[in-house]
């Protein structure tokens, strides 16, 4: 044993193991775990083994869930839902408080169990994960108390199916179960097959506090078990995991009416400017990539450093990497623990090898790997081209890439050069520069001079192929609530519209285009690519011609919309001025539009036009009123929740109320800074195309609103498939809604599909339209000491 003098001379860390006896005894006493269904553990049938990734030693046997197990759990949750949802918010809050307190009582036990099962260092489980679990239950107990006043008119969804990954097993459970229960839902949760043990320990806590049977159900298993839950009779699916699986879930749930939130992969940029505190930024890399083995979907795995500081930064990073301690995750002195399993370790090795084969240079810590277990020495890759596989694919291991930039604009371009958009970290002592870059980065969470900071009070979720929906905060609560939809109205119901339906494939497109049958693209009338039009019929007679748009017209409209990107950068006040002007110009031509709608057989055309004008004024007023929030989160931070436009949106409008329905959808999207490609009512598109003169005389920039007429579902399918369209709204029948959701799975664009509604009633406008037209970016800014 070294002397005190020798220790002071070497400054080596001795072993500091965390006691695991209590957890090991708990595992041995149980041996094999069944599912937790209807308040009790089931007798296990077919099982699989879970093991300690740091040693390879088995920990427990766990039931392998089947479709019948999932169905039984859903049945229990459905039976428990009426009583649970009818409890007052205060009563549900008390149950959540009890869960929080019991997590705190067992926090050391849970931290050790998490580390044994997952391989992450004990200090991360103990100091970050488990305290955040308790925080989530406390926070959402507060939402349950305040539900009626904060979300008036909202109701729970019903039974929620939840699927979580292996990187934060217990924390992900809390992220999903806490808001679901606070809102009045019941849940069936499937943990990752690699890390089910803390979920089962949580099930014991539910039983210990006497939580009503069936409110929380946990079914363990593999991917087939998860697929069975996706296909079960649940009202919502909340999934955290890979983008590939998320895409499959999007298609599997399309047209089912199930609410869906996806928190998927990331390839997050870690941007370091020359004026940054480089030592602090290096520690940020250590926190984001190495302390948690890089097994965090929002880890800043693409390090981008200002060229003038790159040499110094790399030197400091290399020196710090050499001091990292890799080994037993239960040792309190360990920095880098084990990879979750051999499959993931093999994937990391394979991706790094491919990156090296494509020219990247690996710099790796000179760590002595333990003889047993799944370990990978931390490192980073330089000489990485943007097309290198390690620049594009999520490695999910303790390896980052390092590249340089020269200007802030180049930094933003490189940061956004990914299909993902989960998170970003920006380092600069110039707060103006940092906030400017934060506003331009396509990411749902942006940390300034910090990284991987989480709190239940702030939303978390991504843009683009990192998914949609939010966990945490008000945004997360909203994902587990529903506002009762307005009464569905069949399109073109008797007495509302006498225009003939859009002609079918056999009869359309027979008339050559004339000068009146144009599309509206890029601020100008354009001939459709097909060169053909179709007759618009009302009351048995032709009242005009409409252009027959096709795939190329949609492509041109999307390109025109992208060219109008300045609209999203304009202030809300500037957008409001244009929309007020548009409303005034529409009012000046009120009589013309009344005549047009009267010819189409619209009932009470004067009322519809008057309401359309009112709606234009309403969204002009909202353009600079709908804003974000400052969340109460951790000390020394202010967390800004900023609603941002999606960018380019596709909108398929209803046949009913051809003018009012069109404006009711297009105007809120535009008011929030989006540019739209809209498909008007096929049976009466002229009410929308007649608006081109209103747009042209209202200072509306070309490309902000684009109108393509023709076969609604054919055109909507092209929009839904388009990778440069960020969000899709579809109003219509069930087949069209299912199609729009299915085809949007390519780039996982956010969708809103709904049946036709009474556009003249309360369901025709409101805050929901504005919420659906925006995505929230949470920006963590240093604040105070």
Brief characterization of the structure:
By secondary structure, the protein is an alpha/beta fold. The chain starts with a helix and ends with a strand.
Features:
785 residues, alpha/beta, Aldehyde Dehydrogenase, Chain A, domain 1, Aldehyde Dehydrogenase, Chain A, domain 2, 3 domains, six-stranded mixed β-sheet, globular
Any chance you could write out the topology, listing elements then pairs?
Layout: H1 4-10, H2 21-30, E1 32-33, E2 36-37, E3 40-41, E4 47-51, E5 58-63, H3 67-86, H4 89-105, H5 107-118, H6 122-150, E6 155-156, E7 159-163, H7 169-183, E8 186-190, H8 197-209, E9 216-218, H9 223-230, E10 236-240, H10 243-253, E11 259-263, E12 269-272, H11 278-290, E13 302-306, H12 307-322, H13 342-357, E14 361-364, E15 379-382, H14 389-392, E16 399-405, H15 408-415, E17 423-427, H16 431-440, E18 445-448, E19 467-468, H17 473-478, E20 481-482, E21 511-512, E22 519-521, E23 524-526, E24 532-538, E25 541-547, H18 551-563, H19 566-569, H20 572-588, H21 590-599, H22 605-622, E26 629-631, E27 637-645, E28 648-652, H23 660-671, E29 675-679, H24 686-689, H25 692-696, E30 705-707, H26 712-721, E31 727-731, H27 734-743, E32 750-754, H28 767-772, E33 774-782
Parallel strand pairs: 1-5, 7-8, 7-10, 8-9, 10-11, 12-13, 12-17, 13-16, 15-16, 17-18, 18-33, 28-29, 28-31, 29-30, 31-32
Antiparallel strand pairs: 2-3, 4-5, 6-20, 11-19, 14-15, 21-24, 22-23, 24-25, 26-27, 27-33
């Amino acid at each position: 044993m070294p002397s005190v003098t020798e220790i002071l001379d070497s400054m080596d860390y001795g072993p500091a193991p965390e006691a695991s006896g209590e957890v090991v005894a708990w595992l041995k006493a149980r041996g094999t775990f069944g599912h937790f269904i209807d308040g009790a553990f089931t007798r296990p049938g077919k099982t699989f083994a879970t093991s300690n990734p740091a040693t390879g030693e088995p920990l427990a046997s766990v039931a392998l869930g089947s479709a019948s197990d999932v169905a039984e759990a859903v049945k229990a949750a459905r039976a428990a839902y009426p009583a649970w949802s009818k409890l007052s918010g205060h009563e549900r809050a008390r149950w959540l408080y009890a869960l929080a307190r019991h997590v705190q009582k067992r926090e050391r036990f849970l931290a050790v169990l998490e580390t044994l099962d997952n391989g992450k260092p004990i200090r991360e489980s103990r100091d970050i994960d488990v305290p955040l679990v308790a925080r989530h239950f406390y926070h959402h107990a507060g939402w349950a108390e305040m539900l009626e006043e904060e979300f008036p008119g909202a109701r729970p969804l019903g039974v929620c199916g939840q699927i979580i990954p292996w990187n934060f097993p217990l924390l992900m459970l809390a992220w999903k179960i806490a808001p679901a229960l606070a809102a009045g839902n019941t849940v069936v949760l499937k943990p990752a097959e690699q890390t089910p043990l803390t979920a089962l320990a949580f099930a014991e806590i539910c039983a210990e506090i006497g939580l009503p049977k069936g409110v929380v159900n946990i079914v363990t298993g593999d991917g087939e078990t998860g697929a069975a839950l996706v296909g079960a009779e649940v009202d919502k699916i909340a999934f955290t995991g890979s983008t590939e699986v998320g895409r499959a879930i999007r298609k599997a749930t399309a047209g089912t009416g199930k609410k869906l939130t996806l928190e998927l992969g990331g390839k997050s940029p870690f941007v370091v400017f020359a004026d940054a505190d480089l030592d602090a930024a290096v520690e940020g890399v250590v926190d984001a990539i190495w302390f948690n083995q890089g097994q965090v979907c929002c880890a800043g795995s693409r390090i981008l450093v200002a060229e003038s500081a790159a040499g110094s930064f790399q030197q400091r990073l290399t020196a710090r990497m050499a001091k990292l301690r890799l080994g037993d995750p239960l040792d309190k002195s360990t920095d880098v623990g084990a990879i979750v399993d051999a499959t993931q370790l093999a994937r990391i090795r394979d991706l790094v090898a491919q990156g090296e084969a494509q020219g990247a240079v690996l710099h790796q810590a000179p760590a002595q790997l333990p003889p047993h277990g799944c370990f990978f020495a931390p490192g980073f890759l330089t000489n990485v081209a943007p097309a290198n596989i390690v620049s594009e694919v999520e490695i999910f291991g303790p390896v980052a890439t390092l590249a340089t930039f020269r200007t802030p604009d180049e930094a933003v371009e490189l940061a956004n050069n990914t299909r993902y958009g989960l998170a970003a970290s920006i380092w600069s002592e110039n707060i103006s520069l940092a906030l400017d870059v934060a506003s331009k980065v396509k990411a749902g969470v942006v940390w300034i001079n910090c990284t991987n900071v989480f709190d239940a009070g702030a939303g978390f979720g991504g843009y683009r192929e990192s998914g949609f929906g939010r966990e945490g905060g008000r945004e997360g609560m909203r994902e587990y609530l529903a506002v009762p939809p307005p009464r569905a109205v069949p399109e073109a119901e008797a007495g509302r519209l006498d225009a003939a339906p859009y002609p079918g494939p056999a009869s359309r497109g027979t008339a050559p285009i004339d000068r009146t049958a144009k599309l509206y693209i890029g601020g100008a009338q354009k001939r459709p690519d097909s060169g053909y039009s179709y007759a618009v019929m009302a009351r048995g007679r032709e009242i005009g011609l409409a252009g027959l748009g096709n795939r190329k017209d949609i492509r041109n409209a999307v390109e025109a919309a992208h060219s109008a990107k300045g609209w999203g950068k304009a202030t809300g006040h500037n957008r409001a001025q244009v929309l007020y002007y548009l409303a005034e110009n529409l009012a000046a031509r009120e009589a013309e539009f009344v005549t047009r709608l009267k010819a189409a057989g619209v009932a009470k055309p004067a009322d519809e036009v008057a309401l359309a004008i009112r709606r234009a004024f309403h969204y002009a007023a909202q353009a600079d009123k709908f804003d974000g929030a400052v969340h109460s989160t951790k000390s020394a931070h202010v967390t800004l929740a900023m609603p941002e436009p999606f960018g380019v949106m596709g909108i398929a409008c209803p046949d009913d109320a051809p003018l009012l329905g069109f404006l009711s959808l297009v105007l809120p999207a535009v008011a929030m800074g989006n540019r739209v490609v809209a498909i008007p009512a096929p049976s009466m598109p002229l009410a929308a195309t007649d608006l081109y003169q209103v747009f042209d005389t209202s200072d509306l920039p070309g490309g902000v609103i684009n109108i393509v007429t023709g076969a609604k579902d054919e055109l909507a399918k092209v929009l839904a498939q388009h990778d440069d369209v960020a969000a899709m709204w579809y109003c219509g029948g069930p087949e069209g809604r299912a199609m729009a959701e299915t085809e949007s799975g390519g780039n996982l664009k956010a969708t809103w599909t709904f049946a036709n509604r009474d556009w003249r009633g309360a369901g025709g406008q409101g805050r929901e339209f504005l919420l659906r037209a925006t995505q929230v970016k949470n920006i963590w800014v240093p604040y105070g000491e």
